[in-house]
Give the backbone structure.
Amino acid sequence: MDDLVLSQKPQEEDRLGALTDDILLSILGSVDLATAARTSALSTRWRSLPWLLPELNLHVRDFLPVPCPDYPLAAALRIFFYSKIPAQHINQAMASLTRAARSFLRTKHSRTVTKMSLEIYLVGNYSHDIGPLVRDAIDNGTVRELDLTIADDKDFRCKRADMLQKARVVDGFFSTYPNVLPCLTRLHLYNLRFAKGDMLHRTLFDCCKQLQHLSLDHCDAGDGSVWQIDAPSSGLRVLELRYSYLKRLEVLCLPKLELLRWEVWLHNETPLHFGSVPCLKELFLLCGADIDHPGFSLSQLLDGATDIHTLTLNFQGEKLWIQPESRQLRAAFSKLKKLSIQGIYVEFDLLWTINLLEAAPTVEIFGVE
């Protein structure tokens, strides 16, 4: 029996060795970078493979002593998990991430990274370590596209003064390493209060020419502020807001925006105003039941959005009046395929439903709670 096991080992090793580098790199690309780096100890052939990955995923959560829940699995709650991470763990993780970045970005191997996904904390002096590494990698052509998450260790109850300070730190990072902005394809920020709305606009739209996906958690320009986006040259396709003190978001011009998702706003009036959004296909609005909304009309909310095919309104049990005037909604609902509405108070259920269906003759999926 032992002889049989021993005789099978070379064959198994040969099977693995017969795989091409492309296949092995595909396997390594499916695990976190820390795990991929450890495989370099397997054999002489594997020694250089992790340094040839076409995409780098440097996420601070992968270097934490205690694992952090993955964002896709806890999107709405992850900001709370960040608040439970001890400061010493964050420092340890950033130190390890910086060493890994230095190893992978200053490698002797000739390489081009098509995309790098980077998640960092801007704490201590680590920005002065990681910043030059990213800057140089962009300058020498190693990194061409960058997905950046600037994480935070506090939840949405972060004090206003802390939010202003964090915004200054983030703005300082981008000012020190300005070549980062044109490479950004995706950006995720937490707990920032920009002193001026134009600073937010300048950073995110005037400088980020490749930006396609923007997520802002608990970010604004002040309580009750109005954020106007007028960016005709922007390529932004996805905009996500979570727990914002914005009074209203006015999307005056985002010609390539396809998805807008806003989870929890804290003012009791119509939260959105659309100007030119010719590509907007999906709109998702979610708000909790602890805010006294007087209600608003769907036609007022959707005025200017004429190409929506998926609309989700989820108010989690909130008794919210929404007036679905069929005639005024026909422009917005002319291409609607999926409509989901929850937590809305309706006095005349049948008439309300008829008005919606008349306004949306092409709807295929219709759900109301």
